[in-house]
Amino acid sequence: MHLIQRLNVAINVVDVLEYLHHSCQPPIVHYDMKPSNVLLDDDMNAHSLATSVGVIKGTNGYVPPEYDFGSKMSTMGDVYSYGILVLELLTRMRPVDESLKDDMIMRKFVETYAFPERIMEVIVDPTTI
């Protein structure tokens, strides 16, 4: 998948989240935003998000750290998870990728080594450009 296709997926996903968070009453929190829950059509357009209704869960690396400490699920948690999904689309790395050293997570890696000066050099997977 090329970079433009990846960016289009990110735009489609944020459109779905915007609908869930702002057009539904009450707002719907997805709580498990990750690439495997993004449903794509044959043209690589994201139209919806898969989830298990009524099951509270989350996937390590995608859920906000504060959920580990008992914070209530919120739309802001979905925004955090969406950010991780976008980083994964750009880097082609998992959020807890084994290639990261010293138990570093992808978000911290990006923040420490690339943002904002070296995004294209360090973050964007060159095979997608």
Automatic annotation (TrEMBL):
Tree of life domain: Eukaryota
CC per GO annotation: membrane
Domain Protein kinase: 1-129
Molecular function (Gene Ontology), one example: ATP binding
Pfam family membership, one: Pkinase
Listed name of the protein: Probable LRR receptor-like serine/threonine-protein kinase At3g47570
Organism, scientific name: Dioscorea cayennensis subsp. rotundata (White Guinea yam)
